[in-house]
Amino acid sequence: xxxxxxxxxxxxxxxxxxxxxLWERRxxxxxxxxxxxxxxxGILGGAALGAGRVPxxxxxxxxxxxxxxxxxxxxxxxxxxxxxxxxxVETPLxxxxxGLAVGSGVGVVAGLGGLSEPWLPVVGLTAGVVFGSLLxxxxxxxxxxxxxxIGVLSLALVVPWAWGWAAVFxxxxxxxxxxxxxxxxxxxxxxxxxxxxxxxxxxxxxxxVGFGLMPPWVAEKGARFWRRxxxxxxxxRDERQAMVRLVVRLxxxxxxxxxxxxxxxTAAVELGRLRERARRLFTETEAGIES
Length: 291
Description:
The chain is mainly α.
């Protein structure tokens, strides 16, 4: 596996995520959290590679190559947990995006390191996005028990994940097969993030439709990522992005309040403001369409 490919594929995934987020609802300045996650992943990935060369751990890594992969996988998990409560991580899909960004940073640094184990970048990339999709599941089970279960499961996967990729590399011995499998894992993790996001946002938006704050089509198109690109929102891209941003933030704020199980004055005030903005926006939009 060439060093260029080892560095290239994680970076390609990261750039695609930036483009998708920018086209969906994010403004350029809103992408800083992904760049920060990518940089943090690179730093932690370098630390993991350095830890594998210290006298205490070097014999272990030399004897069992998957131990180096476990350090890389642990670095991706640590970076993701560091940004788990970042304000811009509003939905399950945002958590998956963040996991991919952190994993991509780990993977790029692993490729730059001139590694004797060329499958380590795959471990970093896939571990980040899989752990990100697992973190997204905490929106479905927002109470302490669910968060603890997801955390324990993520930690329990660190070693098996590295061991599995090491075994796959020995079995296939072909770079393109390994990266094809890695791409499949990334796409599957993203699909889980998309599913979790729709499960979280749709009931919240459907309730707002029942309140009369927005038309029925908004619940369906706002809860599903690919339907947020529809021209049904608005003809101009900037107007569509503004509407999608408002709808997603409103649903995410409601889900946050529901998960806390008690009253949070700051979030409740923000929810009131978002509802008022949504009411005015869709009233004006529907009036414009009718006229």
